[in-house]
What we know:
The protein is of the alpha/beta class.
Amino acid sequence: MTAHPQPVSGAPGEHARALSEILAARIRANGPMSFAEFMRECLYHFAHGYYSRPSARHFGDYYTSVDVHPVFGRLLARQLAEMWELLGSPRPFVVAESAAGVGRLAGHILDFSARALPAFYAALEYVAVELSGARRAEHATHLAAHAAAGRASSAAEIPRAISTGCIFSNELLDALPAHRVVIEHGALREICVGFDGGQFIEMREKPSTPALERYFQEQGIHLDEGQQAEVCLEACDWIESAGRALERGFVLTIDYGHEARILYDERHNRGTLLAYRDHTVTERVLDAPGEQDLTSHVNFTAMDLWGRRAGLTRTGLVTQSQFLVALGRGSEFAELYEPGQTEMEKLRARLLLKNLIHPEGLGEKFQVLIQHKGIAAPKLTGLSGY
């Protein structure tokens, strides 16, 4: 057993102090915990988890595509409407957004659909899925008009059965709890979290579940001596359960990540796990529990494989830049503008668009995976560059 200390830097805040005490007590009672358990509590603890905090605080740590400009949601609406048409324009067409937060993206999609895609909107049943009760409460503000029109609702879980529709997520899977592993003397070891000398430390243990070994074996992945990596078993469970819930339609996933051949190559020898705090990126992932965001890149090869187990077929995988450009090209990105905008306001909108599609912005950092079920080889505009 090898311990690797990671001292906490700076004075921890109220949430970090409280959560540290809870986690330290658990470790003292039960021994080292998997990093997946540590990450779950850091992000989702009901009182002190990072995602239990006001969403306005998160903008100080990072911003997402939704925060940049409503055009992101408007172009997503166009893709969803095309999916609806390809499936025969059914009524209802269920769109379930997993991890909908306070409903900003849902509002952008629904507002645009009501204005520009009335036939699609009339068939739409939008379910904003959010585990946090505090965030769900804000849906009443962001989605009030659409709920009153019978086009939107709020839920804690994805519907168990969706006859026809699309389940989608934006920046969900990279924030699901992940196990950490390393190859040590040719064997797979799990990097767990211990507590010693008043600080959290890394401890290398036997794998906590045989599923970690199987994960690499089933994808034909070989890690080198000393190589670290993450395994997000919860992402595999999520895509499989989404596929089982869907009878006919699509699963659309937007997130940081790569295919396995890239994710586990020599460029990622230390893995991809990072912490975000005050727009600063760090590898000090054991610092300030509950007060920094923790993410690891999504393995889209695993999403493809586990999705197939639930009847999903890969439609395509493109960068966010390719996806948005393909969807906006036909209208020359008319979705960028509001009625009556000045030329200066239109220029600012075009500059914001660059953040979404430029390789140095969000455009190449995010991938868009689409999978389908119950429809033969659909051709989607968002994948036209695939």
